[in-house]
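G., before I forget:
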Amino acid sequence: MGLPPGPDREAVERVLGLRRELLPGAPGPSPRESAALLLALALSRRDDGSGDILGCEVPAPAALLLLGAGKEEVISPFPERLRPAPPARSCLRRGFLGSPASPGTLVQVLAGAALAFRLRGEPRVGLCVLDRSALSTSAWHEGFNLAAVQRVPLVVAVLRSPALSPDPVRELPPVTRMGAAYGVRAATLDGACPLTLLDPARKEVESVRRDGGVRLLEILLPGTGSDPVPHRSL
Amino acid sequence: MDATPKDSLPGDSGLRDRPDHVSRSLRGEPATFLEAVSEALWEEMERDERVFLMGEDIGVYGGAFKVTRGFLERFGARRVIDTPISEAGFTGAAAGAAHMGLRPVVEMQFMDFISPAYDVITNYIATSRYRGSGPVPLVIRGPVGGGNRGGPFHSQNVEMAFFHTPGLKIVYPSTPSDAKGLLKASIRDDDPVIFEEHKGLYRAPQLREVLPVGDHLVPLGKARIHREGTHLSIVTYGLMVHRSSEAADRLSADDGLEVEILDLRTLLPLDDEAVMATVRKTGRLLVVHEDTRTGGIAGEIAARVNEQAFEWLDAPILRVTAMDAPVPYAAVLEDAFLPGVEDIVTAARYLARY
């Protein structure tokens, strides 16, 4: 574990232990799940409905366990071979939203949740974790554009993994350029070692909490085991 | 933002803050259908600070039909939000705000434009309770219906696009009083409500009425007898309540037929009890709707009557509807496309003679 001793490291170790209990025999967290966990670690977590909100469109049981999800929220009703899947159900009290059927829709919903934070003057932040393929949808555009226009406190993290996306992502422009088109500050982070994501993610979350507005993060992930880019697993 | 709704509305002092068009009931003046909708929104926003509005041109411009005229000045840009042209985006955002405890009311500039939001409404909002994700209390409202020469993109009735989606409610009022009471009830409901307002009713002078004073609520899911009768029943809603009423006047004067008219008011959930009661009373049923014929609500009502009141029928169930076509632009074609008084009279006479 590359995190220094402290609450973050303890939280990650606890979550990985829980994950092993709930998914016995399952492989360790994938690059996407590892990235989602470290991003979620940047959020203010409460169990009384007053914390930040995570919406995650990729399978990331570890991120949900971090927020206090139970077995029924982490284990998908799909067959064993498809587990784990993105969660269908939400637990607003603990701070996560279930994933809708259509990629990109969660950006719309998170934009509205963050709008509610702004309307009520609450120092809360929404974090939306998506696969790069969601950015091909009109749902993504409408949600992100609305969030940008309204300057709601929202961080959108886009996981870009060449091996896992149905889109020819090598042909697509970097999302930093897309951020500029929406007037949103964007950055690209190397997710080959997921532990390195925590500090920049926390910086962006706190910046949004303080100043409002939307941030767009592109997380570059390695692909499968045959991918030449090395991946440091949790 | 105060999370606790007020128990009561402002008294006479509220008059000082309210423009005329949203204070007809307090003044005891007759209100149009459109003013009744505006008054419902205004009162709910005054009563409950969780209620806010989203939609295209609803703020500075006051809405395409001026339903929200004066709202921006009274409630501010935080609660009257002009959105980009993105029906899916702001409907999805309304769902997120509803998850966080607010009560959004979304305006579709024309209900025809709800189709881009079909995915988020049916796959996300309507399934939320069933996915264990809790209620999504929001209202999607807007103008529907033909007769205004709007053509295929500004004249549709959208109820049946959503009628078979469990998890939604669909409301379609026919009078100013019902519009106000049903809209207020919809805003307070914990489920998502699609609220249809026929453009032909908005400013119809003959429909002006003095609205009930006070916190006027009309429960969802309860139909209303619009006109008592004994010879046959017309089950209908929206503008067609008034077309059917005209037809009933003629049938009474020319044929001596007394027609009972049941105004559904809420299409989902459908008030089966009221439908069966009128069928059992008259034994003859005509269903009238402005929506197109195939897959229209008349088919569902006929099936339910077949299941629950077949023995009481003395004649086949008939329907008068729009034709199965897009709404035409040309006036002569649109008039032929829409169900009219003559169509209702003809069908009713056939039923009565059967």
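Confidence is low (pLDDT under 50) at residues 224-228 of chain A. The two ends of chain A are 7 Å apart (CA to CA).

More on Monday.
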